[in-house]
Specification:
The chain is of the alpha/beta class. Helices cover about 35% and strands about 20% of the residues. It has helices at about 1-5, 40-55, 80-90, 110-120, 140-150, 175-180, and strands at about 10-15, 25-30, 60-65, 70, 95, 105, 105-110, 125-130, 135-140, 155, 170-175. A three-stranded parallel β-sheet has the order 1-3-8, with helices on both faces. Strands 2-11 form a two-stranded parallel sheet. A two-stranded parallel sheet has the order 4-7. It is elongated, with a radius of gyration of 18 Å. It is an enzyme of class 5 (isomerase).
């Protein structure tokens, strides 16, 4: 990165993760401090801090896009919605999952790609920007919606799996800054 900036690159758009926020709850704004608790979140936070330090010594603008939850083509097979699709394809009658009360911020990967491109091309956009919908949805509602949209009929075995200890129950992005950058 340093060599590219020294070579004349004037703008860097990089991708972070909502896991940089750690265990903070509710609508998460970019003004909140990063408090990562996972190796992935910590790695992204360290990268952002290094890029910010570099931007203070070399002339370039930095846009750090914190992605929230996404789904769609290319998603890991062990993720919730691919597991749901696999269970439906096998003809399972029951889908085991957590209690489903977690509030999350989900977007289709195509929408995330569009928002990333638009933010990166927005003149003057710099600093941290959440790439999210700004609308929390419960995991249970998301699963039920997918089942309805795809005509899948399975009983949900709610509470089979515990809630993850690395995410709070309510965890979604504040999209105000994103909307301002894109307007």
């Amino acid at each position: 990165m340093k060599a590219m900036v020294q070579g004349g690159l004037s703008r860097v758009a990089a991708v972070g993760t909502c896991l940089e926020y750690g265990l903070q709850s509710g609508p998460l704004a970019e003004t909140l401090p990063a408090r990562p608790v996972t190796p992935y979140g910590l790695g992204k936070d360290v990268l952002r801090r290094q890029l910010e330090a570099l931007s203070r010594t070399l002339p370039f603008s930095l846009l750090w896009c914190r992605l929230f939850y996404m789904y769609g083509p290319g998603q890991a097979r062990g993720s919730l919605l691919p597991l749901l699709a696999a269970a439906a394809a096998r003809g399972d009658e029951v889908f085991p999952m957590s209690g489903g009360e977690q509030l999350r911020d989900y977007l289709p990967v195509e929408t995330v790609a569009d928002l990333l491109a638009r933010a990166a091309l927005s003149p003057g956009a710099e600093g941290i920007v959440n790439v999210c919908s700004g609308r929390p949805v419960s995991v249970r509602v998301l699963v039920e919606r997918w089942m309805t949209e795809n005509g899948w009929r399975m009983r949900l075995e709610l509470g089979r799996y515990p809630y993850p200890d690395y995410e709070p129950l309510a965890f979604w992005g504040d999209a105000s800054r994103l909307f301002a950058v894109l307007s």
